[in-house]
Write a structure and sequence with these properties.
The chain is of the alpha/beta class. It has 3 domains: 165 residues, Quinone Oxidoreductase, Chain A, domain 1; 127 residues, 3-Layer(aba) Sandwich (Rossmann fold), CATH 3.40.50.720; 57 residues, no CATH class. The strands form 4 sheets. It has a 5-stranded antiparallel β-sheet. Helix 4 packs across helix 5. The mean pLDDT is 91. It binds zinc ion. The site of zinc ion (ZN) has 9 residues, from helix 2.
Length: 384
Amino acid sequence: MQTVRVSTYDGPGTAPHIQIVPYPKISDKAALIQIGVCGVCGTDLHILKGHWPKPLPWPLTLGHELAGVIVEKGPGLEADFMGQPLTVGCKVMLPPLMPCGECDYCVHYPNNANRCLNPTYYGRYIPFEKPPHLWGGWAEMVYVDLEMLPATKIYRLPDTMSLMLASLSEPLTSCIRALNRAVSVGGFRVGHTVVIQGSGPIGVLMLAAAREMGAGRVIVVGAPEQPRLALCQAFGADATVSIEEYTTARARIDAVRQIVGGYGADLVVDCSGHPSAGPEGIEMLRDGGTYVEMGQFTDAGSIETNWHRICVKDINLLGSWAFTANDIPLAINMLDRARNRYPWHRIQTRFPFTEAGIAEATQSAMDMRCVKATIVPNADICVG
Ligand SMILES: [Zn+2]
């Protein structure tokens, strides 16, 4: 009997076991994919450290940055997610956490990543009742069945693309999307200066993505010099700032600002996953710059220190300080248009233009005895 070797973990902190499962029978809309390559993601490491916020079906096979070749498929599986034909011998990749397409979030907010209420985790149907299953990429093969899990997405790869290169497509996608999030708020344009916090795999892929998407200069803050910052230099980083050399947030902020010059960077992207990266990175930005948090997803914080939730919740967090000259007519027009729709004047409590009146106005406001203390130097011209 033909068999397949699969690695499993019994839970966080355990060692991997290689187990043997029977070669599955291939259903009509299913495929068996021989794995050429599967990356080790920071998410896998978090899972192994016990950081995953929800229960997981241990024992399980990790690995979702996979690239492989279809070795057998059912006749009902004819095309990939983009409509490209699938045949035995095709190179493919499968992303994790694919949306169901039917829940409230999928129907109404399809552009928010991974907010699906019922996501298909690895997109792979479990053909056997008991583990080990054929669903994680740290295995000789994975089995997918789109009849059983229709949310599974298969993407055909270019025939000439090596599986090594293809296994970077999943993490690179996260980087491209993060930059497009910045584009969507006008925060990333051709020529912009970009600072990347973190020099792990996401940091390096972000560097490549930023360069390919038109960044002017790209600066990476990370460690260690070998192999990570050296690789960033090989990828064309204009400068690197070592957190081993600059050991305090203040020193790193000063070093980055010295390099970027002017008022600070246009865009800072956190790829480090470090809880303090956000407050530090904001100080590397120019006023009016954009910060994208993509480095943190686990329960690494509480309500009091929940910066990581910006990433987990896929939210837009925008600063807004005062206004621009072009905003003023918006307020004048709104007041004019809506003058009779609200009791505007009940906001205002009038005080006369005398020393006692001004003192009473400020005291009344401080004591919250009024809403908007308003000084009236010339009551005769204030009709209404
Ligand atoms: Zn859904």
